[in-house]
From TrEMBL:
The chain crosses the membrane at residues 9-27, 39-61, 73-91, 162-180, 221-238, 244-263, 270-293, 313-344. Keywords: Membrane, Transmembrane, Transmembrane helix. Its main location: membrane. Belongs to the autoinducer-2 exporter (AI-2E) (TC 2.A.86) family. GO terms for cellular component: membrane. GO terms for biological process: transmembrane transport. It holds the Pfam family AI-2E_transport. This is Permease. The lineage of its organism: Bacteria, Bacillati, Bacillota, Bacilli, Bacillales. It comes from Fictibacillus enclensis. It is a multi-pass membrane protein.
């Protein structure tokens, strides 16, 4: 028995050494496979975006089809509404968004000077505190200014890249149309390409993931879009500068549970402070009203409680996601955790069922 355990540990250590050597070799060969990966990413990017949009729109097509509308007509209606609305919004909004980003980038030094003057005032009234504290606060302000300038430049660069990739992105609507039209055939192809022993379990896992995650993703995107549009309109009516940029930030951060409303409100309050105390109060009122609507009307009505995950686990997933990937990690943390939960629970139930079947 001891000899068998010894052999098992040798095998495990050998596998670990082999994995380490494979990783080291992969890093050494990076100059060869990185260009290939870049090409594959450029080719597969529109494909994955089209698959995601198809996943979002397919239930709407099925709802219209079940209500008696011909499938082709239901696809056409949902397709035109989605891409027509998205295209019109981008056509009207992108020029204003670029203009506001440039204005924000040019006004960042002025905003920074405003906060620096406040800092000097605070420094005057807190002269008894150690000088190192004041120097640290000034460093934070300068770092924040550089970060915001860099972020604005990165956003403008990303928009320019989207223009460069226009002919690649224009493929996405065509892919979505054919995916929606031939989705049953695609399912059959995936079924036959999957090894036979995995078909039943794989279909069950995908069904459970879709049941747990599908409604949450669609609901969060819809709520974020509605909240962002309402924020743009409210901030514009209130006279806040950069309403489109701030509305987009609110829409994106609203996808993040619990922490999203706070992250979205920070830049709005930050800019409002440079205008007047009255603007801060107006903006704070707008944010509170929006969050009340989202938390008490839109959230329960559209998103509901489809994840069935304890809030403590969601917060842990958000902390881990934020540490790993920043804002992108916060957005992806809950969906990834939900998928992992479904897979782990399915494996556990499958093993328990296998043990029960083996019992005499």
């Amino acid at each position: 028995m001891q000899r068998e355990n010894y052999i098992k540990w040798i095998i495990r250590l050998s596998l670990l050494v082999l994995l380490f050597l494979c990783g080291w070799l992969l890093l050494k060969l990076a100059p060869f496979w990185v260009p290939v990966l870049t090409i594959l990413k450029a080719v597969l990017f529109p494909f994955f975006i089209a698959v995601f949009i198809t996943y979002l729109l397919h239930p709407l097509v099925e709802i219209l089809h079940r209500k008696g509308m011909p499938r082709s007509l239901s696809i056409l209606c949902i397709y035109l509404l989605f891409f027509g609305g998205t295209g019109y919004a981008l056509y009207k909004g992108i020029p204003y968004m670029i203009l506001q980003i440039r204005e924000l980038a040019s006004n960042l030094p002025t905003i920074s000077k405003t906060y620096q003057s406040w800092l000097l005032e605070v420094d005057h009234h807190t002269s008894s505190l150690p000088k190192s504290i004041h120097l640290r606060i000034e460093d934070y302000i300068h770092s924040g200014e550089r970060y915001l300038q860099k972020s604005a430049a990165n956003v403008i660069g990303s928009i320019k890249k989207l223009v460069d990739y226009f002919f690649v992105l224009i493929i996405i609507p065509f892919l979505v149309f054919y995916f929606l039209k031939d989705i049953d055939g695609i399912k059959r192809v995936c079924w036959y390409l999957t090894p036979q022993k995995w078909r039943r379990e794989g279909r069950q896992v995908l069904k459970e993931i879709d049941g747990s995650l599908g409604g949450y993703i669609r609901g969060q995107l819809l709520v974020g879009t509605l909240l962002g549009a309402a924020a743009m309109l409210a901030l514009w009516l209130a006279g806040m500068p950069y309403p489109i940029i701030l509305g987009i930030i609110i829409a994106i951060t609203d996808i993040i549970p619990y922490f999203g409303p706070i992250l979205g409100a920070v830049p709005v309050i930050f800019i409002a402070f440079t205008i007047s105390v009255k603007m801060v109060l107006i903006v704070a009122g707008i944010m509170l009203v929006l969050q009340f609507i989202e938390g008490n009307i839109l959230g329960p009505l559209i998103v509901g409680k489809s994840l069935h995950i304890h809030p403590a686990l969601i917060i842990m997933a958000l902390l881990a996601g934020g540490e790993i990937g920043g804002v992108a990690g916060l957005i992806l943390a809950v969906p990834v955790f939900s998928i992992m939960k479904v897979i782990i629970v399915h494996i556990r139930n499958h093993r328990l069922q296998a043990k029960i079947d083996k019992m005499p």
